[in-house]
Amino acid sequence: MYLENLEPSRSTFAPPIACKRSLSGDFVFLSQGDEVGFAAEACIDVLRSANRLIGDEVYRWSHLRGEDSLDALDGPVCGPDQTLVLIGGTENPWQPTSARLRDLRACIRNAARVCVVGAAVFVPLGAGVLGTKRLSVHPNFRPGVVETAAGLDLHEGATCHHKALSSAISPASAIRMIVELVGARDGEFIRSALSNYLGLSEPDSANMAGEHWRYTRMARGDVVIGEALSIMLDHLEDTLSVGQIAGLLDVSPRKLERGFRELLHQTPLKVYRDLRLDRARSLMAQTAMPMNEISVACGFSNVTLMKKWFITKYGEAPEQVRRHAYGGMRPN
Question: Tens of pLDDT along 286-297?
């Protein structure tokens, strides 16, 4: 399996992936048994919905129910250009027989990317082909996994993507794992739209921008700083001066600046610009708005100025964010 990293963030944006070789659009699902077959079908519905949103049949799939279904196949289960998804439950470890483990070992080695869900974590462990050191494991299986393979970095999240292996702790979290893979392959715009379409969006995080959330946390409940941040967020387009913000809060500009330095370690103007750039990044990734309209909507006097600060903060040009958001294609 290839060794590129896939690290989707829980923030609004996932970083671009330098190499997409392991992100195949062709999936082979193998369920531990009929009792978890529903999870594979739910993941397939994610791919079906992605095709609907994209407007093309870019994702394909097949579903094998139980190990015994391997006997009916004439040829390899999974090709080198396919993603193998092993779906287990949350109660009983998936521990194939030695003979069956040989078949599964060949499948895993042949796949472009391997995804393990729930009890399926024991399959690559038993086959001795776990080429990663980080994965998400259900609490029921953590003692067994630690005993079987010492030295693993057990990720605390419900999903994890490390090198060419993706993992989800349960059949329910497998849906999010597949959404994340679609987003990594086809861009943030599709990931966001797919998440909304499937009802997976988190309203609280959608209403609070990433930078706003970060600075609010740093404010540690300070009422003045918290209200100042909210005022800034509500006035990204018609940028206010520090004096105007202080006036709305009935404090002196000096007191406001001192509070920002002590708690946020930034000037109010720097924090204000970060909030505007965060909104600009969101609009670039999730809409087809022209750059000049985005600059106006985010309080920048012109596109050139917005691009200058954007590159300074993120280390990449706005055009790169937009290309990644649309899976390498420019929006119409």
Answer: 888 999 999 999
